[in-house]
Specification:
The complex is a heterodimer of chains A (829) and B (160). Chain A has 829 residues and is of the alpha+beta class. Chain A has 24 helices and 35 strands. Chain B is built from four helices and ten strands, in the order H-E-E-E-E-E-H-E-E-E-H-E-E-H. The chains are: A alpha+beta (829), B alpha+beta (160).
Chain lengths: 829, 160
Amino acid sequence: MDDLLADFLTETGEALAECDTALVRLEQAPDDNATLGQIFRLVHTIKGTCGFLGLPRLEKVAHAAENLLGRFRDGLLSATPERITLVLRALDVIRLIVAGLEKAQAEPEGDDGALIEALDAACRGQDAAPAMAVPAAPHEPPADQGAADGGVAANTIRVHVDVLEDLMTLASELVLTRNQLLQLARREENSSFAVPLQRLSHITSALQEGVMKTRMQPIGNAWAKLPRLVRDLARDVGKKIELVQQGADTELDRQVLELIKDPLTHMVRNSGDHGLETPEQRRAAGKPETGRITLNALHEGGYIIIEIADDGRGLQMDRIRAKVIANGLATEAELAAMTDQQIQQFIFRPGFSTAANVTSVSGRGVGMDVVRTNIEKIGGTIELRSVAGRGSTFTIKIPLTLAIVAALIVEAGGERFAIPQISVVELVRAGAGRDTAIERIGETPVLRLRDRLLPLVSLRKLLALDQPTAVDAGENYIVVAQVGPHGFGIIVDRVFDTEEIVVKPVAPILRHLTLFSGNTILGDGSVIMILDPNGIARATGIGTGRAAVAPPAPAVVPSIERTTLLLFRAGDATPKAVPLGLIARLENVARDRMEHAGGTTVIQYRCRLMKLIAMPGIDQAAATQSVLVFADGNRTMGLMVDAILDVVDDRLQIERSADRPGLLGTAIIAGRATDVLDAGYWLRQAYSDWFERTDARRDPHARPRLLVVEDSQFFRDLLAPLLTGSGYEVITARNGAAALRLRDQGLMVDCIISDIEMPELDGFAFLRAVRQGGAWAALPAIALSSRTQPADLATGREAGFTDHVAKNDRDAVLAAVAGALRLPQELAA
Amino acid sequence: MKMSAALSFAARAKADAGADVFVTLTIAGQRCGIPVGNVRDVLREQAITRIPLAPSEVAGSLNLRGRIVTAIDLRSRLGLAPAATRRMSVVVELAGELYSLLVDEVGEVIGLPKGGIEENPSTLDPLWRQVTRGIHRLDGGLLAVLDVARLLDVRPAPGH
């Protein structure tokens, strides 16, 4: 293709996208002169260039559109939606012609008479000026408007993406070669190469970083077409829709950007078409007529988070149910046993669309399953949250770039593997005779790590590598990895260095191996496979709860955080579950060590007495008893159960049941109905009389009083006993508003602990209200959240929080409270 | 490297003569041919990294001048017993990816008349038939012409 023409096509494509966005903006603010000027210039440039290139059809259409725009700009006509639609139609024709040009390198045949007539009529019609009197288009944009958004172009050049891709590959190869050289140089001391090599190394790193930067693009590029799309959609379906974009300048790798463009478009379209109601419906529901779709992008760690939210009707459960049954995905009885969250997941199934009518816009059954597949293909996740009448939010999390990563090199079964550093939390050396030793629950190896039980995965076993005779018994290294909110340990034989590696995709015939994310060449020239911690977690059931058998329930319920759960049996056959994080240790207690005094059972445990509580109906005849040890503050309590079954990760979604003391309710865990232990209840069983003992030595009024603001009953039930157990008086409130009512009733506390995400009044707003005055204005306040990224911390500090701790971290919560009250921290040994 | 230069030279020389040009190789005594157009290199024994859980035909991967090449053991692919001797390999390209085919021995480059290829005998072992395009009769015996795409159509091992 002619270079000139190629450049024109690229430029025109960009200009058209820009025009679309600007026109929609103009429609909302018809007096925005800067926007108008921008559109005028863009169309004018298109017209001017095609005249130069000899493209008469294109020129005529552009000219007519330019005339109308000129009228707007000169204030002779106002930019009404009808007129804007006309201009947009002209842009569409231009786009059509450009597409034809691209294909055939000549203008396609066609008659634009009607459109041009309509444009001319619009020019004339409103002000009765004869068509001939249309002012000649100025050949230079007015200087004042040009200043607003010129400038950038002078500092940029256009480079073909292929060139950048090649550069990236070369830079990656250079990194590998540099690594090889460094490895060679390490063997030779006092080599005269050392200094220049060091310099080469720095330059390589800088180069690599620079090339990476060229690939970064603002996500706004992927959104550019959306305002137009939403506008057209709104007209087509007779809705009023406002599109809000936040964080459009958030940058990510263009390769990733390309891959999420289509899923994003699809989801926005879905939100507008299915999610939002008609103006009448919205009025009836007491909402503003204009529905809102919010796009939000932000960086979090090595990831970018994209949210697509609407304030519409939420997912229509009855329709989903009907469709599930109609498609035979589940029976009515199965559906009845599922929570709304679980049922919502069906929208990610192939061929699932609930739109009653197939519209031109969406509802063609190619939907969310494709979106999910595309996002998972690039190592991302998608989650869904929907509230009836309030709207739905999709949250997408994807890696920033797919190119170079730091990796830890490990060995298992005589083979070396790379583990991306980003998911490695720490390294632990475990072995017989050490403080840290690998133990087993049933067949599951676990590690006690700082009063936590960490599920372990043997790499050797997982990869079916040679098994030496003493399986996992000798010295081992454990790579503690983090996948989402879940920690787990990978047992390896040896740990080497960390190396920067270039992730190369594996050959197509190996793509089905989900445990590997790629392969690479190490500094010594050997090929090495890169392990994918996500894949390992999936394969072993960590973070999914669907290890071996496919559960009857729908596969995933992504909108609730997963919790690592200990499964056990006590009394009846129904498995019981308790969050592993609450448990300090698991013990097998010999029956003859138990002592009975005054109706309670105790044992001597770590030089103290530990009270044992039996779950009802358990078998107390065997020589040893399985005991779950809870430790809070300096007190310990043992809960006697029949048998420890397993450790799994699953989403804890509890169907509450009121009439069973000691159990919070039932949840589907690893595909089975499971009773969830009310840890608070059992701790209270042990603590109630322990308090009397400890409090006798203390002035009861000296106990600091804490206010826990938390909307989840579950977390309130977990936190309250933990804190009371540590010697605090605890008052709970359901949300910020309820807490403020307590303040207004004159309640005084010593410290506030508040969740962030709560209905009615969230944690940030609540604390801002607290800080504004009143009795609590100067209290220490701890934010309790699952989000502990720097940005969240900053927002928390701004709102007035003095500290910020992760929700599930018992020790951190206690430490933060102690810190806030300046009390010496008492922790179990 | 010398080998590849020789390859391309031979290929050019013989393609002119209106013949199909093959790189010949031996697997468990059977002479086979691979169209020279597919072949990128011929290697002596290489250090190969094992790939856990890979299909059994995949011997591993190796580093060929900075590119990662997946090694396929043709003995395993054709259901034959593993070789006791040191192996050579032929590097082929398919859809932009390099694969190294492990064979017992790599022979010479020969040109054979285009029309000389005969259909597979119907009694040919199914594994062989799957990957064999046809047979050439040579003076010293038969030459099975292997289809590279079909050789590399390795199905994931069951269970993974």
